[in-house]
Amino acid sequence: MADIRVGLIGIGGMGGCHYENYKQVKGAKLVAVADVRVDMAKEKTQGADVNVYADYKEMLANEELDMVDICTPSFLHADMAIECLNAGYHVLCEKPMTLTAEDAQRVLAVAKKTDKKFMAAHVVRFMAPYMYLRGVIESGELGKLLRLDMKRISSIPVWSWEDWMRDEKRSGGVITDLSIHDIDYVQSILGMPDSISCVHYGLKNNNDFAQTEMVYGDTLVSCEGTWYGTGMPFHATFLAVFENGYVESTDKLYKNGKPVTIEESAKVEEVDLGINVGNDNGYLNEIQYFVDCVNNGTSPDFVTPESSAQTMTLVDAIKAKAQKI
Questions:
Q1: What pLDDT shows up at residue 231?
Q2: How far, in Å, CA of 27 to CA of 34, rounded?
Q3: ω before 300 within 30° of 0 (cis)?
Q4: CA gyration radius for the chain?
Q5: What is the pLDDT, as a whole number, of residue 95?
Q6: CA distance to 66, 143, 199, 262, per residue, from 179 (Å)
Q7: Closest CA to 66 of 284, 301, 291
Q8: How is 189-251 classified by DSSP, letter by letter?
Q9: pTM here?
């Protein structure tokens, strides 16, 4: 079977991360890249057998593609995904799926109508510590989950194209852009909560942080998402307390205080992307998973379009409930 041909739309921050990971993806060949910053795109792809375009529509018109990978700013996701699905391409789209639940339903409807595969790239679902925790929760090996505390903290992103990430209308702010990683993870395992509360600082004074609490029966889940104006390395942690033990992820993964070793394939080569994110096999795993779905003719059931749309419904509900301070 010939490798499927992939076009990457956007090779900035996350696009650069996806680009580097395609070098290890099996069953797919990245043949074209489109970015409005064409000089940057040519520099990043120098020496590679990749055609570069300044306009993604020109790329779609001139390349014989099977799949597109959308890594553009969040406010462009909905219309771009719909256009690519209608044009007959399978679509992998960086998170968030869209900026609103309403737009997510538009994408979902087109994905169903065209019968093309669509997946939002919720990378945390594919990261080893979080996959391990999912297994502990779903197996019940430590009993019932009582409390889950998730934190995701970073310096505020000042590196984005035209500073779109610090524009709440274009990024959705820290809840839609950063905290969504943990919100989606929780939703994918536990579903929609019984009740929601949130305190949100809002994008001001070059800071944006939110503390969300969700109740599932007698289980309490909290998700903190923070952009601080002071320089701060990215870090993400969780503490899950069960009836009969706990699982904790900080610099390492622990179960009941003992380190947990997880077998992983070789990571992609460390590359300085100029963005404040960690390097994890999750990016490679999510791309490989979607490529395998396309090659095997199977729907992505680990991250379904319906589940990603449900995450946007939950994000909208959290923002509607948020107390601004």
A1: 87
A2: 21
A3: no
A4: 19
A5: 98
A6: 32, 27, 13, 25
A7: 291
A8: HH-S-SEEEEEE--SBTTBEEEEEEEEETTEEEEEEEEEESS----EEEEEEEETTEEEEESS
A9: 0.95
Over the chain (325 residues), the average pLDDT of each successive run of 10 is 95 96 97 97 96 98 98 98 98 98 98 97 97 98 98 94 95 97 98 98 95 98 97 94 98 96 60 50 96 98 98 98 97
Q: What share of the chain is helix, strand, coil (3-state, %, to 5)?
A: 40, 25, 35
Tokens of 69: 């990978």
Angstrom distance (rounded) from CA 281 to CA 276: 16
pLDDT at 275: 52
Give kind and range of the element (H or E) at residue 5.
strand 4-9
Phi first, then psi: what are they for 158, rounded to 5°? -105, 5
pLDDT, position 266: 47
Are 34 and 9 within 8 A, CB to CB?
Answer: yes
- Which of 264, 294, 278 has the alpha carbon at shortest distance from 236? 278
The token duo for 284 is 């490679």
